[in-house]
Amino acid sequence: MTHTPRTPLRALVWAIAASTALLLPCAATAQFGPAITVNDDVISEFEVSQRVIMLRAFRTPGNLEDLAREQLIEDRLKLAALRRAGLNITDEGLRTAMAEFAGRANLELDQFITLLGQQGVSEETFRDFVLVNVSWRDFIRSRFADRAQVSEAEIDQALGQSDASSGIEVLLSEIIIPAPPPRAQQAIATAERISRLTSTAAFEAEARRVSALPSRSRGGRLDWLPITNYPAGLRGLLLDLSPGEVTAPIPITNGVALFQMRGVREVPRAAAEPAAIEYAALYINGGLTDQGLREAARVDANVDTCDDLYGIARNLPPEQLERDVLPPSDIPQDVAIELAKLDPGETSYVLTRADGQTLVFLMLCGRTPALGEGQDRDAIRNQLRSQRLSTFADALLADLRAAAQITYN
Are residues 84 and 99 in the same domain? Predict the structure, then answer.
């Protein structure tokens, strides 16, 4: 075999590459170092930081660092189980699943990937996230299909109990701190400090001082509300609180939210979780300035129902008024939090868009119950089957975790 001598240019490139490798900062090397080991599988610090950024982009509440680590551990356990079962998703199937995920945000896949990239999330991070979740879902369905069947009697029972089932109501106090980009860091620091409070009096004092909500005049106090009014991703976080405890800061668009638990009670007749929520949003220039709030108050004084907003907006560009009927899971979290406090015909104007320059005037039009007389039996069957599969999946994952060797580096 003939050996070709390196050209001076090639030698120079190799020398530069070698010297650059030697000079890499420790911090850059550390981010690819091991954060957690699950059995023999390593989770890097880079993966943890990417998952945190992605969760933040998804508006996920809670301590994102802890949640990212827990999710990645579970992902490794799931992948190991999938490998043992010999299951793989095709490239086409994965691409379809990613497109479906993007569709929940009313975006094409390429648009969604670009948007994530602008927030620092790599396409590979998003792809791996979807791959694990879709593959695991299919695995659970195939493994437990026979045991998750729902009988006609169970559907009848669900229908019969939907009006008389007991439920949970929560008594909360709230704070929303405006956090447009120039003030985001300061707002988050304030929220972190408030999240450590355990005194209702101290929380109320902070609400009067920093909250942008009308409830600040009463120390952020809310009335009793069904837990089902709140976004599904927020319910567990709220119910984990003891009286006096405060949630970790919850990022929302141009702001950060906090809730303090004051009480939990069981009620004999609870509101069923809605299948869909209809609401209207009128976008007003000026944000939370006096001008914007005066215009919102003027609109509020002249409307009683969502239909009345069409008269208000008749001379405005069409995009300035939106009216949607969406499943609760498809509603932006900050909007869902505000709608949770409203009855049909009631309004809220505390949220902003466009870096705080646009005020969102929200009105709740109505809630469509998930269960009730005349409800599609197939829809009820699917709901019960999904709940059963979720129980089996949680039990299997708990077994996998109990048998695993997990080391935090």
Answer: yes
